[in-house]
Amino acid sequence: MANLRAGLIGLGMMGRHHARVLGSLEGVDLVAVADPGGDKHGVANGLPVHENVEQLIAAGIDYCMVAVPTQYHTEIAKALAEAGVHAMIEKPLAGSSSEAAEIAKAFEAAGVIGAVGHIERYNPALQALRVRLENGELGDIYQITTRRQGPFPARIADVGVVLDLATHDIDLTAWVTQSPFASVSAQSAHKSGRQYEDLIAVTGKLQDGTVTSHLVNWLSPMKERLTVVTGERGAFIADTLTADLSFHANGTVQTAWDDVAHFRGVSEGDMIRYAIAKPEPLKAEHEAFRDAILGKETDIVTLQQGLATVVVAEAVIQSAAEDGKSVALTDAVNGVLGTDNAGAAQ
C-alpha cells in the first residue's frame, strides 16, 4: 500500500515540529508545505515552499496539517474539505463557535475526516490518568483543578489566553472525566497592553457534578502545567511538562501528633509516582490521525469535540466580561451542535 501524501500549511513555531514528525512518520510522506511568510525555520527539507492552500491541494495531498494562526483556520479548512482533503487543525478549532461550526459542517458534508490538535490528550500522564479514572481507582471524582502558567508568547497575536491556552484545560477536563461542562464563571485581567486577556481564573461545574478550577496566564516567570483530580480515595497529580503521574492516597493510619492532626483534615496516605511509557505526544497525535484516515479504530479529537471546547471558551470570555456572572453551557452547546451534544463530552 502506498504511503499517504501529507501536506503542511504554516511553518511557524508549531509548524516546524509538525514538519519534523510528518517527515519521519511511518506510512506517510510529507510531499508539500506552504507558508506565505516563507520557511523561517528551515524545515522544508528540500521541498518547494508554496504560498497558499490551493497550491498544496494541487500537489495531490491526501491530508493536511493546518498550523496557521487561528484567524485563518476557517478559510483554509473549508478549502481543504471542499477539495476532499482530510485535515487536522491546530487548536483552537476556530476563533468563534460560529466559525468552528462552519468547519465541522463543511467536513461532514464533504465526507472527509477532520480533527483538532489538542495535543494534551496525547500526553502520557493524562492518558494514564484517564485509564485509572475509568477503572474507578479514585472512586467518586470531586474536583479537577488545572494550572497553566508561563511567560508571554510573542508569537500569539490574534487571540487571548483563553482561546490559546485555556482551551487545553477545557478539553482535557471534559475528556478525562467524560463529562461536559455545565457552567462556568470567570475573572480576567489585561496587563500586557493587548486587546486580549492575558490572565483568566475560571471556576465551573461539569454535568456529572464535578467542581472545576482553572488558572491560566501569560504573566508568570515560571512554567507550570498541572492537573489535579481529587476524589473519594485521594488525588492524582498529572504534570504534563514532565509527563509524570502521581497518586496521593487518603491515609488509613491516624496521626498521633495532635498539633499536626488538627490541621491535616483528610489523613495522609501513601504517595506513588507511576513508571509510565513516555512517547512524544505530537507523534502520538499524528499516528492517531494517520490511523483514522486509514479507517483504523483510533482516538482523535473530533471536530464536534473541538467545537464544543470553543463554545465553553466563549462562555468563559463572556463571564469575564460580565464580572464573573455564571454562564450555563447546556443551552449554548445544544444551540451550536444541535440536539445531540455528545461531542461536548469529549
Automatic annotation (TrEMBL):
Transmembrane regions listed in the UniProt entry: none
Pfam families, per the entry: GFO_IDH_MocA, GFO_IDH_MocA_C3
All copies of domain Gfo/Idh/MocA-like oxidoreductase N-terminal, residue ranges: 5-118
Chain ranges of the GFO/IDH/MocA-like oxidoreductase domain: 127-236
Name this polypeptide is given: Gfo/Idh/MocA family oxidoreductase
InterPro entries: Gfo/Idh/MocA-like_OxRdtase_N, Gfo/Idh/MocA_Oxidoreductases, GFO_IDH_MocA-like_dom, NAD(P)-bd_dom_sf
The species this protein was found in: Kribbella koreensis
